[in-house]
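User: I'm putting together notes for a lab meeting next week and I want to include a structural view of one of the chains we've been expressing. I don't have a solved structure, so I'd like a prediction I can at least talk through. The sequence is below, exactly as it appears in our construct file.
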Amino acid sequence: MAAGYGSLLHGEAISLGIMAALWLSVRFSGLLQSELEHVAGILRRLSLPIVLPDRIPTECVLTAMRKDKKFEQGKLRFVLTHRLGSAYLSDEVNLQDARHAVEFLRKFI
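Assistant: Thanks for the context. Below is the predicted structure for the 109-residue chain, given as structure tokens.
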């Protein structure tokens, strides 16, 4: 992430990205909350983070999202799902939605 805030390993960032994408999928694609919780349990058992550390500011995360390979033509793109095992690429997630997803990552338990 950003200098001065500590860093995340690539796999840790991927884990948090999965959680954010699942939250967005619940919100926009009809994924069941229980499926999000199921995946969170798997990530937890693998000792991967499912909560964003407070030391990493939201703006730092949003900046990193803009540098991701899925950011194209000024649009954030997320892999979303209607159900586990079926995914699609969506460019309908706006910056405010992404900000809400990051805030979700701070609160999920």
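A couple of points you could mention at the meeting. The chain has one domain: 10-107. Residues 10-29 form the longest helix (20 residues).

User: Perfect, that's what I needed.
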